[in-house]
Write a structure and sequence with these properties.
By secondary structure, the chain is of the alpha+beta class. The chain contains 4 helices and 7 strands. A 3-stranded antiparallel β-sheet has the order 4-6-5. Strands 1-7 form a two-stranded antiparallel sheet. The protein has a two-stranded antiparallel sheet with strand order 2-3. The protein is globular, with a radius of gyration of 18 Å. It starts with 5 loop residues before the first strand and ends with a helix.
């Protein structure tokens, strides 16, 4: 099986895309699904965002599978412009609607709040009003116009399975020596 890198250009006009519950469903790309959110930080809340990053890291140390329902590949949080703006990038295996609904359910259930609470315009009732959460995300989403995958269309579960097989083969070969 040859794995060939691939790229996909995404349309600026989303009116031709399939519509989900909360707006256009962007196609699965070689990088899978994902989105980037850029929003203004509430004045004086940059340190709280950084602290929340540590809170999330600590929660993941206690339960490495805390975020597993989101089918994530990567997350990236960035504060920029003198800590006045925040960027969230997520790459995952489900479409936008499922990811955002799962995120609200997961954070509501786990008791870990979202750092988005430190962003201007974020709805205070997000835990009981998923539509408001999703509206905020859509309003602050900055869609990609091209996405590239070195190993295109491969899910996080497939990557983990391949790594388990690799480790099992390595152990087997070590035992033969």
């Amino acid at each position: 099986m040859e794995i060939r890198p691939a790229a996909m250009a995404l349309p600026k006009d989303t009116s031709q895309l399939e519509q989900g519950k909360y707006g256009p469903i962007f196609p699965r790309t070689p990088a899978c699904y994902g989105f980037t959110i850029i929003a203004k930080v509430k004045p004086g809340r940059a340190d709280a965002i950084r602290a929340h990053g540590q809170t999330l890291a600590t929660a993941l140390e206690a339960d490495p599978y805390l975020l597993a329902p989101l089918k994530l590949h990567y997350l990236r949080w960035v504060l920029f412009d003198d800590d006045t703006r925040f960027m969230y990038q997520g790459i995952f295996d489900t479409d936008f609607d499922k990811y955002t609904e799962d995120a609200v359910a997961l954070f509501s259930r786990s008791g870990v709040d979202t750092t988005f609470e430190n962003l201007e315009g974020f709805p205070e009732d997000w835990k009981t009003n998923p539509e408001a959460f999703i509206r905020f995300v859509r309003e602050h989403q900055c869609p990609s116009f091209i996405e590239y995958g070195e190993y295109p269309y491969v899910t996080a579960d497939e990557i983990k399975k391949a790594l388990r097989i690799k480790n099992a083969l390595s152990e087997m070969l070590d035992q033969l020596q």
